[in-house]
Amino acid sequence: MLNNIYVAVLHYPMIGKDGKIVTTAVANMDVHDIARTCRTYNVKRYYIVNNLPMQRQIVTRVLNYWRNGFGREYNPSRAEALEVVKLVSYYEDLVEDIANENGVLPLKVFTSAKTRENTISYEKMRKVILSEERPLLILFGTGRGMPLEISETCDFSLEPIRAKSDFNHLSVRSAVAITLDRIIGEDIYQGGK
Questions:
Q1: If we measure between CA atoms, which residue out of 2, 88, 81, 89 comes closest to residue 34?
Q2: To 5 degrees, how large is the angle CA 192–CA 36–CA 13?
Q3: Could you say which DSSP state residue 163 is in?
Q4: Does residue 88 sit in helix, strand or coil?
């Protein structure tokens, strides 16, 4: 169902450089650019998941500036894109929010730059989107990626974008854009499969 897709960028829990669970910082560009990508592909909501009060305060200021007052007047299309953004503290909060809105738990899709077993191709994911009635939540990580505890809650694991590249470190905003284009793409809107 193309009108029931959600995207979440997790900043907690993430794997840090030392292999421990950390909270990563939100990049200002990610707020804007991922929102614009999500709006372009008609994603229902873009969740930013961060549990640190100061990080949440920064995101809230950015959203308030561009959604209200001068920012909205200065750049109405940015304000429109940012309307899809919702800030939550924890992974469980976003799953619960989607379930409350839809009356059913979403199907969860794990993404990673690393090759894993039992991944689903973009083509198969596209077929799931077109045939499934349940909401679909596509999860993106930051830092060194999402921990196993998140992947174990997911229904699908999507194949990496560039699994065989000798340099596989796309920004999360690039990964979101490429992933959405590969699984939704323009031809889906024109009846293609």
A1: 81
A2: 100
A3: T
A4: strand
pTM over 0.85? The answer is: yes
pLDDT at 190: 55
Measured between alpha carbons, how far is 43 from 137 in angstroms, rounded to an integer?
10
Single-letter code of the amino acid located at 91: Y
| 193, 126 contact by CB (below 8 A) | yes
The residue with greater pLDDT, 135 or 186, is 135
d(CA 117, CA 128): 19
Convert the pLDDT of each residue in 62-121 to its tens digit.
999 999 989 999 999 999 999 999 999 999 999 999 999 999 999 999 999 988 888 999
Structure tokens at 90: 């924890």
Residue matched to tokens 């921990």: 147
Cβ 174 vs Cβ 34: under 8 Å: no
> The tokens 């997911």 sit on which residue?
154
12-to-80, 108, 172 alpha-carbon distances in Å: 26, 17, 14
Domains in the chain, start-ordered, CATH in brackets?
5-189 (3.40.1280.10)
Q: Amino acid identity, residue 138?
A: I
